[in-house]
Design goal:
five-stranded mixed beta sheet; eight-stranded mixed beta sheet; rod-shaped; Immunoglobulin-like; 3 helices; 2 domains; mainly beta
């Protein structure tokens, strides 16, 4: 028997899945003598080493299930959450209320489950089942990797505030890590203004290089002035972002302010206010 999950609209099955789907009654099997040649049993082709799959947040991922000698049996994909089993597909039909899930069959025998726009809640166990008695099951564990974005100083330590002298060059470094597929662009913003293709101010450039597990992006702003002060954000698409507060000072030593840390932030703001008034 099954009931509906009113939050997701998915069918939730209590107990062994195939006992609910198939209603044939097999009685006195021990007394029956078969005179026909038995058909070969289906089997999974995929190597056990592929039972763990990693996907980046927001990407699309295929969970593979290659089956030989399927015969008249049926393939289904289910999502296991504790004691609950959510039916995702049966044969070539998708039963999930979540449109991100679909059956993407690939010839000749790959019953792939496609998950689009992967989110953190998609992490967990998935089962590809063959309708034998008892069912044959291939379990796949999906790991969802959330990118990490940090604006760092010359020593690689995260920054919250950065101080520059008026007329100097602003240089900010952004490190993106935990990205198995570094295909998305790293964006820089000053407030709400995108800087990657900025031509209005002039003297702004962005240089990004791909790393084995992410990217390193540098923002350069020449001839810094007081209008360049404010919050700067480094982001990877819409999935991860971080910000730093930049202070452009007049007549003070930025290195001294930087070494002073947070205790000097209030003093720097006062200096900025005085410089604006003057």
């Amino acid at each position: 028997m099954y009931f509906l999950d009113f939050k997701t609209g998915e069918k939730i099955i209590n107990g062994p899945f195939w006992h609910e789907v198939f209603t044939e009654v097999y009685e006195d099997l021990e007394d029956e003598v078969s005179t026909t040649t038995s058909e070969p049993l289906p089997f999974f082709e995929d190597d056990p080493s592929t039972n763990n799959v990693t996907a980046q947040l927001g990407s699309r991922v295929h969970l593979h299930c290659r089956v030989h000698d399927l015969g008249d049996k049926t393939i289904s994909w289910v999502r296991r959450r504790g004691e609950e089993i959510h039916l995702l597909s049966f044969g070539r039909h998708t039963y999930s209320a979540d449109s991100r899930y679909s059956l993407a069959f690939e010839q000749p025998n790959n019953w792939r489950l496609l998950i689009q726009y992967v989110s953190e809640r998609d992490e967990g166990f998935y089962e590809c089942q063959i309708s034998t008695h008892p069912p044959l099951v291939r379990r796949v564990y999906l790991v969802v990797v959330v990118p990490k974005v940090e604006i760092v100083d010359e020593r690689g330590k995260p920054l919250q505030d950065k101080f520059y002298k008026e007329g100097s060059i602003i240089e900010l470094r952004c490190v993106v890590s935990e990205v198995p597929e570094p295909s998305r662009q790293v964006n820089w913003k000053h407030g709400n203004r995108l800087l990657n293709y900025d031509t209005k101010r002039g003297g702004v450039s962005v240089k990004t290089e791909t790393l084995p597990n992410g990217a390193l992006s540098r923002l350069y702003i020449a001839n810094a002035n007081r209008k360049d002060s404010g919050n700067y954000t480094c982001s990877l698409a819409d999935f991860a972002a971080t910000a730093v507060s930049v202070h452009v000072l007049r007549g003070e030593n930025p290195l001294a302010m930087q070494r002073g840390g947070v205790s000097n932030v209030t003093h720097s703001l006062r200096a900025l206010l005085i410089s604006y008034i003057s």
